[in-house]
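chain below, 312 aa
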Amino acid sequence: MKHGDAEKCVIFKMQRYSLHDGPGIRTLVFVKGCPLRCRWCSNPEGFSPDIEIRCIEKKCIRCGACEVVCPKGAIWGENYEIDRKKCDSCGKCVQVCPTGSKDFFGEEKTVDEVVATVVRDRTFYDGSEGGVTIGGGEMLFRPDFSYGVLKRCRELGISTAIETSGHGKKEDLLKIAEVTDTIHFDIKALDSDLHKKITGVENGVILENIKALDEKLKTMKPKPTLILRVPLVEGFNATDDNVEKTANFIKENLSAYDLVEILAFHNLGEAKYGQLGLDYELRGRNNARAEDLLRFGELLERRGLPVKISQL
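prediction:
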């Protein structure tokens, strides 16, 4: 598959009947591939744009069938782990595994296939003001595919939403905004050095994109809902300094937003790191404390910002 093919994309999940990431009952489409490497990310299967093989150790019965069929000699040890440097995701181990211990993360889908799945639940959308949300990974990593799905759903009368880090081409973001009803835009850190330390990239492109998006939204009727998301993780960006800088940036540069949402850290994605042979830096860390989130929320509210605290 060519990553530039607008009609095809590797996605790692389609989650139906979701009550998050937009109003009402939604179908979430997770695009595979992301330019960021947020150190707390709960979706490491979204990092790579390619189909990957995961190892679910608790399902393994140590039969050895996967080791026998692997043409690269990439499966080894008493737990039949995968040497990721050798593995080319050919899938032979998946085909012979009797328990599903070896499985795929990722599936290639066309725009038509995704839309067909979304449409199946339109009765639920109509009754709840729900619809489709495209996230990831990063939906700007595959902008033409994301635009194609959103445009098709919009034409069918289905509400559309996106989740984005804002790291991508400005023209892609602004084009996608034209077919989107609700935009969730992450602001992870205002200091560029801190942003690079915790996500792997600087934030210049992101901050310029959110300012350009804000200007565009002010000209649109009806205006899409813009929710600014601020993920706060203790030991990384959950500091008074970062929250105050975030408030200052919003007040000085943006006006088309509807809500500032604090996203709480959770450790629900920890197991997936092991399944992909990745180290999880925050292993064993507790979820965010409500009292800390409330304090940061009050700091933003004192600056006159409309705030919601998410406990997800």
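The mean pLDDT is 94. The CA atoms of residues 75 and 82 lie 5 Å apart.
thats it, cya
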